[in-house]
Design a protein that fits this description.
The complex is a heterodimer of chains A (about 240) and B (about 270). By secondary structure, chain A is mainly α. Chain A is about 75% helix and about 0% strand. Chain A has three domains: about 90 residues, no CATH class; about 60 residues; about 70 residues, no CATH class. The longest helix of chain A is centred in the last third of the chain and has 44 residues. Classes of the chains: A mainly alpha (about 240), B alpha/beta (about 270). Chains A and B meet through helix 3, helix 5 and helix 7 of A and helix 2, helix 4, helix 6, helix 8 and helix 9 of B.
């Protein structure tokens, strides 16, 4: 046995000992709720053990998590979508469902055709389903995205400038939009005025990446705070202010 | 010394981050939390809806992986809605949001003695994402013929008169992914012209600022910091406010490591 085996073995033994003491002194109740807290705390620690190094305990926790998450999502989709919206109205229709099943059967057939990709002989059938899906998606998406992302964004970018705090904001946004567009315009060599403008564009991009990275750190730390709060409060029973 | 710092084991940083989170959680001190204009805009919008006795649609588009950031936000907003007697309907655009949404609303509704079907209703999850939003805009009763427990939406008091998304006075989406900017704005707000707000994880908050400037979003609550600001505005500090102590201290730890890394890098180049 190497050093890591002792470390991880000791880690599991320590966790079991602490959980046993918490059950013994009554911090955790000896029922489904207490057992659930111990399991959740154990898997939290298993997954964080990756910070030390990759190990079989982490792999176990990861695989269990993926399995449970998949099963949970499948359960929701089965009861709410497949059973609730398809099987029940088609096979066990209520008074309001009569005559409304055709619009369910056609898309279901199209959906089933997608599964023919698993067969070499019948894979060609899936093309009809994909063609419908791509056509529908393009028809839905293109006008809406043009409206929201292009027209909806151009309008505030071209708002009239003024000598106010809002006017300064608009000017900064205008300079940012123009210089970043110049930076991504590769048909002209980036020299002279174009080179200077593209350098300003790079600065705008760097500030945007920095802001994005800062927000990302905040997000990841929030998740860590959530888990440590759970371990301290729910598992160890420490009351936090 | 410089060589040691240049090759610092990353686990040392992890230990400092762990201590930066744990110690402030155990200690009792507070930083002032001042609400930013984007969060105040969401709060004011709910106040506006309360004044006109309107209705709100809450959309849950996140899973367990974003619970620490978005659940405090959802709880604070639900508390605000109950306190101001604003009826609201919950829909889930992510399948794994169902349990989280139920947990948030059930734990708070009992505090206020809220009545199901009158003060709030829970529609559960439906697939379709943007197609579901269009469906809700065309006919809400077709998109959700029944609520999560099978009660017909055309008989529930809160949803009886809702025909379209435009009948809601405010729609708010809690998002861990692309639901605000890729689903609600293009297929909902732009098409049916309702007031839309967004609460999101900090990772996607920078992507949403252009939509605030364009007025497509009336307000935004970004990450745990935004949730703490909203809890402060509602006057009920909870998980998010207490989470800001470790958040702030750990940010200082990370800034210290960034400065140390840069100083060490330049000193090693000078040698």
């Amino acid at each position: 046995m190497n050093r890591d085996t002792y470390i991880f073995g000791g880690f599991v033994a320590l966790f079991a000992l602490i959980s046993g003491i918490l059950l013994g002194v009554g911090n955790l109740s000896p029922d489904a709720s207490g057992f659930g807290t111990i399991v959740a705390a154990g898997f939290t620690l298993l997954l964080y053990s990756f910070l030390y190094k990759d190990n079989p305990l982490f792999k176990f926790g990861e695989h269990v998590y993926v399995g449970i998450a998949t099963a949970y999502v499948f359960g929701q989709i089965w009861f709410q979508v497949l059973y609730g919206d398809l099987i029940r109205p088609v096979f066990y229709p209520e008074a309001d469902d009569v005559g409304n099943t055709l619009h369910l059967i056609i898309p279901t057939i199209l959906g089933l055709l997608m599964l023919t990709r698993f067969s070499r002989t019948y894979a060609w059938l899936s093309k009809y389903a994909f063609a419908f899906f791509v056509g529908l998606g393009a028809g839905f998406t293109i006008p809406r995205y043009l409206s929201s992302y292009v027209l909806g964004q151009i309008e505030p970018s071209l708002a009239p400038l003024s000598w106010s705090a809002e006017g300064v904001n608009l000017f900064i946004i205008l300079v940012g939009v123009v210089t970043v567009l110049i930076y991504f315009f590769f048909s002209v060599e980036h020299k002279g005025v174009v080179g200077g403008a593209s350098k300003i564009g790079i600065w705008f991009l760097m500030v945007a990446f920095g802001a994005s990275f800062g927000y990302t750190i905040m997000a990841r730390l929030s998740l860590l705070i959530g888990r440590i709060t759970f371990l301290l409060q729910s598992w160890l029973g420490i009351s936090l202010t | 010394m410089i060589d040691q710092l240049m090759n610092l084991d990353r686990r040392v940083i992890f230990i400092f981050v762990f201590l930066g989170v744990t110690i402030p959680l155990l200690a009792d001190f507070h930083f002032p939390i001042k609400a930013t204009p984007t969060v105040i805009a969401v709060y004011d919008e709910i106040e506006r809806v309360a004044e006109k006795n309107g209705r709100v649609l809450l959309s849950f588009s996140y899973g367990g992986g974003s619970e620490p950031e978005l659940q405090p936000m959802a709880r604070a907003m639900i508390r605000h809605l109950f306190e101001r007697h604003v009826p609201f309907v919950i829909v889930c655009l992510w399948p794994d949001a169902v349990g989280l949404a139920q947990d948030a609303v059930q734990s708070i509704s009992s505090e206020y003695g809220a009545r199901y079907g009158v003060d709030y209703a829970f529609m559960g999850y439906k697939t379709g994402q943007s197609a579901l939003i269009i469906n809700m805009g065309q006919d809400f009763h077709v998109a959700f013929a029944t609520d999560q427990d099978g009660a017909r939406t055309d008989t529930l008091e809160i949803t009886r008169n809702i025909r379209s998304l435009s009948d809601f006075d405010f729609v708010f989406d809690f998002a861990a992914g692309e639901s605000i900017d890729h689903w609600w704005i293009p297929f909902g707000q732009e098409k049916y012209r309702f007031s839309l707000g967004g609460g999101c994880t900090a990772v996607i908050a920078p992507d949403l600022f252009p939509f605030l400037q364009s007025g497509q979003l009336v307000g935004m609550i970004g990450g745990l910091a935004g949730a703490a600001e909203y809890e402060t505005l509602v006057g009920h500090p909870a998980m998010a406010v207490s989470g800001m102590r470790p958040q702030s201290i750990t940010h200082l730890v990370i800034i210290a490591f960034i400065i140390m890394g840069n100083v060490t890098f330049f000193l090693s180049r000078r040698r």
